[in-house]
Q: What sequence folds into this?
């Protein structure tokens, strides 16, 4: 690593990703957060058959779950939860909330695990301890006084299946379908787009498919940081000489070269394997143009030499091919090149690889979904796959990389503002009530309702709602206007401090901790990105005797709020088998739930599209017809750049583990703007200059002043800054209309030297 003489905290990272650097980072994290021995044994239990599911990401585990998979960022997620630091009422009560608000997000969570329920006292401007039952009774009285349309129930994707199921049951028994959730900021485009194309809102691949794939297109995700256990899979593919084509505006080190900490020889020799066989540095928001270009070139290959498309599959299984092909043929190469930032020749080489491969997987993340047309983007990826029958065939398929470790499970459990009639009927029948059938609010809907006063109470099962959402300038004051906020969480964060008329923090146990209820020790279950459902059992003693499980908190709150519902909340709380029996009755695919999770590795939920059964209205897979090439509100102005808001290597969403971003060469700071050398030159800027960034959308005034611009290997036209800080540049009106996902990866911005005349 070499120091940058000019810009403090910037270094050039020239090694491969992974390797000893990853081991060292893990050792430091364990030392800072935990007792060494306990830390080591806890990490060894991660993702083991009798252990707990890693809260780090939703990548699945191999079938033969025996060997421990080393994972730096999984270790950070685990030790951050299992830390020995404690945010006791005494510690929190030393500060007024106004003082706590001056701490940054890292400092707030660094206070440690919450140990006792707290209530805000406006007279002292402090959080103070409260008894659990008093908290439940007070919250219940306020919920009873509000109407269900005024209350919103947020879920962040760590909540277990059992907690999520009970939570949606509580909200619906209360009368609300207002379910904003983290998926609304993340993979909602997948949940909306895949059903339109394939009849199912989940990925079609299993882990075994990666062993048989002949080509991988990895688009808009950064697995070295965000899905680190995927690196083992990519490493194996690379060693099998499977081409891995990456589409990403920014050079991400782990997608270039990786040393696997599981491979002794590589660790000893310092050797690494290349990951991307071809790295296409397209412009942010240039994916649709690039994919349309690849499809265009594939169609041209079919015309010139034939035998490229899977015509039998297209005829038997799909609908809309001709309209799609005509639309693509009408798109000009000039436009494709201009908007993608890639050359025709380069896209044609990818088309050749695609034409040659008998089994292709496309994996994708936030680079695809967080755009004005995120849902259309997802459908376009399906179009490319359908051309060669790459859905429902071994070694092929679509692989959305889900975010939170159980976000997919939350959805399966009914956390959705638009529940299906079948789901509501089954829920009502099982619990003898009439659930509301109206469409409720999603995350942006809740924000809007908070601003205009329609929403009066926000209950949060985890997460950091206000910091994750766009438009903090509107969102923060709107939180303070609410009548009631309730946060179920493990650590203190900013959303907890945006206090309303009545605010409560209810501390819960995490995945790593034992969960003992009246009937004995409990397991919870989660669903990974590939629809595998399995049990998770924590082993550590809870962070405090005064914290409860998420299930217990939801059940106790429901019992206090809805004493006449006829639902045996406390019975469900006392024995999670009963919750799973209810899930089995309500949700298809969970038959014999309790029995099936006793098998190591659990079971896979039915995925009709993986068997080429298309649950679309036409009964076929549907090609889409992507109009135009622009993914985001057009700018067509050389002075306007596209801002991608990014995660560093040392953060988990709004949780900032440290100020380092090792692979991108940034240390001890986050106040930087990544820019290409070409854009630096065209903007008359130098590496290290102080710049101001402002959003370039009509009617919007949003600024982020005082960032240090650093030169980075990335596509011209695109700039990057860290999420969540850069949310001050993302307007809440800038989102994908089909899914409601904010366009966090493509905000048009102007960049100018700080102090320069505007
Ligand atoms: N350690 C860790 N793990 C995590 C998380 C975390 O914060 N930390 N978060 C979890 C969650 S909730 C999620 S959703 C996932 C997120 O995982 P990712 O989907 O990897 O999300 P991001 O880090 O936001 O980055 C996306 C990547 O997309 C690229 N990109 C940006 N814009 C574009 C574009 O227009 N086109 C293309 N092709 N690429 C683009 C960026 O350069 C970056 O490499 O990770 C999960 N896992
Ligand atoms: N600009 C920009 N904004 C973004 C994104 C982006 O790429 N750019 N990404 C978006 C995405 S993909 C997502 S998913 C959202 C994330 O939004 P959220 O899911 O709301 O945010 P997190 O930061 O994951 O939530 C962290 C908090 O969760 C609590 N917590 C941790 N573990 C547990 C647990 O086991 N139980 C409970 N009850 N609480 C727990 C802790 O109190 C912690 O402070 O942010 C979105 N916002
Ligand atoms: Mo996410």
A:
């Amino acid at each position: 690593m070499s120091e940058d003489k000019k810009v403090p905290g910037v270094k050039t990272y020239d090694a491969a990703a992974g390797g000893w650097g990853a081991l060292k980072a893990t050792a430091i994290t364990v030392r800072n957060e935990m007792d060494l021995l306990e830390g080591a044994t806890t990490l060894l239990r991660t993702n083991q058959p009798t252990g707990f599911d890693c809260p780090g990401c939703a990548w699945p585990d191999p079938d033969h779950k025996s060997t421990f998979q080393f994972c730096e960022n999984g270790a950070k997620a685990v030790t951050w939860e299992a830390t020995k630091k404690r945010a006791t009422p005494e510690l929190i009560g030393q500060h007024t909330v106004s003082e706590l608000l001056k701490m940054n997000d890292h400092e707030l969570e660094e206070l440690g695990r919450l140990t006792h329920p707290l209530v805000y006292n406006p007279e002292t401007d402090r959080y103070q301890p409260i008894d659990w039952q008093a908290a439940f009774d007070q919250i219940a009285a306020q919920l009873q006084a509000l109407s269900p349309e005024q209350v919103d129930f947020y879920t962040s994707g760590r909540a277990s299946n059992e907690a999520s199921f009970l939570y949606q049951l509580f909200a619906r028994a209360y009368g609300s379908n207002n379910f904003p959730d983290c998926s609304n900021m993340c993979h909602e485009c997948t949940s909306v787009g895949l059903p339109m194309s394939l009849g199912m809102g989940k990925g079609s691949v299993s882990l075994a498919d990666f062993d048989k794939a002949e080509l991988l297109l990895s688009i808009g995700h950064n697995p070295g940081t965000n899905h680190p256990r995927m690196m083992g899979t990519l490493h194996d593919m690379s060693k099998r000489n499977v081409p891995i084509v990456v589409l990403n505006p920014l050079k991400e080190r782990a997608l270039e070269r990786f040393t696997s900490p599981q491979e002794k020889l590589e660790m000893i020799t310092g050797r690494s394997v290349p990951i991307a066989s071809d790295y296409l540095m397209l412009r942010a928001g240039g994916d649709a143009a690039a994919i349309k270009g690849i499809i265009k070139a594939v169609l041209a290959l079919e015309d010139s030499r034939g035998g490229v498309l899977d015509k039998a599959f297209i005829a038997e299984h799909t609908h809309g091919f001709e309209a799609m092909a005509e639309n693509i043929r009408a798109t000009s190469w000039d436009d494709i090149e201009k908007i993608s930032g890639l050359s025709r020749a380069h896209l044609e080489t990818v088309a050749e690889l695609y034409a040659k491969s008998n089994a292709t997987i496309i994996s994708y993340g936030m680079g695809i979904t967080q755009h004005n047309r995120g849902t259309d983007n997802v459908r376009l990826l399906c179009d490319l796959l359908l051309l060669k029958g790459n859905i429902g065939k071994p070694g092929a398929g679509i692989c959305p990389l889900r975010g939170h470790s159980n976000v997919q499970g939350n959805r399966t459990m009914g956390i959705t503002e638009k529940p299906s009639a079948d789901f509501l009927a089954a829920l009502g029948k099982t619990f003898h009530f009439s659930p509301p059938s109206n469409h409720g609010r999603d995350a942006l809907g809740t924000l809007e309702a908070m601003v205009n006063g329609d929403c009066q109470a926000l209950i949060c099962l985890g997460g950091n709602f206000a910091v994750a959402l766009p438009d903090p300038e509107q969102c923060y004051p709107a939180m303070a206007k609410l009548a009631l906020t309730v946060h179920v969480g493990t650590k203190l964060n900013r959303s907890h401090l945006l206090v309303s008329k009545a605010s409560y923090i209810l501390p819960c146990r995490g995945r790593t901790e034992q969960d003992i209820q009246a009937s004995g020790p409990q397991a919870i279950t989660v669903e990974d990105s590939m629809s595998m459902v399995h049990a998770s059992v924590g082993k550590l003693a809870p962070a405090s005797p005064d914290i409860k499980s998420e299930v217990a908190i939801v059940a106790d709150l429901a019992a206090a709020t809805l004493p006449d519902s006829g639902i045996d909340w406390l019975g469900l709380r006392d024995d999670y088998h009963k919750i799973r029996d209810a899930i089995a009755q309500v949700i298809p695919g969970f038959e014999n739930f309790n029995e099936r999770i006793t098998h190591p590795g659990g079971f896979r939920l039915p995925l009709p599209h993986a068997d080429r059964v298309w649950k679309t209205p036409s009964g076929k897979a549907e090609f889409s017809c992507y109009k135009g090439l622009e993914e985001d509100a057009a700018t067509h102005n050389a002075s306007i750049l596209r801002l991608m808001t990014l995660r560093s290597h040392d953060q988990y969403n709004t949780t900032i583990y440290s100020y380092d971003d090792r692979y991108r060469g940034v240390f001890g700071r986050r106040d930087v703007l990544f820019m290409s050398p070409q854009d630096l030159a065209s903007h008359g800027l130098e590496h290290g200059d102080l710049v101001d960034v402002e959003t370039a959308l009509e009617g919007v005034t949003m600024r982020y002043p005082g960032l240090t611009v650093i030169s980075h290997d990335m596509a011209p036209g695109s700039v990057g800054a860290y999420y969540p800080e850069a949310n001050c540049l993302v307007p809440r009106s800038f989102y994908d209309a089909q899914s409601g996902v904010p366009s966090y990866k493509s905000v048009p911005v102007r960049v100018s030297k700080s102090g320069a005349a505007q």
In short: The chain has four domains: 17-81, 86-181+407-591, 188-401, 641-753. The chain has a mean pLDDT of 94. Residues 109, 156, 158, 182, 185-186, 366, 370, 403-404, 461-465, 468, 488-491, 493, 508, 510, 550, 645, 653-655, 723-724, 726-727, 730, 744 surround MGD (ligand 2) (CB under 6 Å). Residues 188-401 form a domain with the Dimethylsulfoxide Reductase; domain 2 fold (CATH 3.40.228.10).
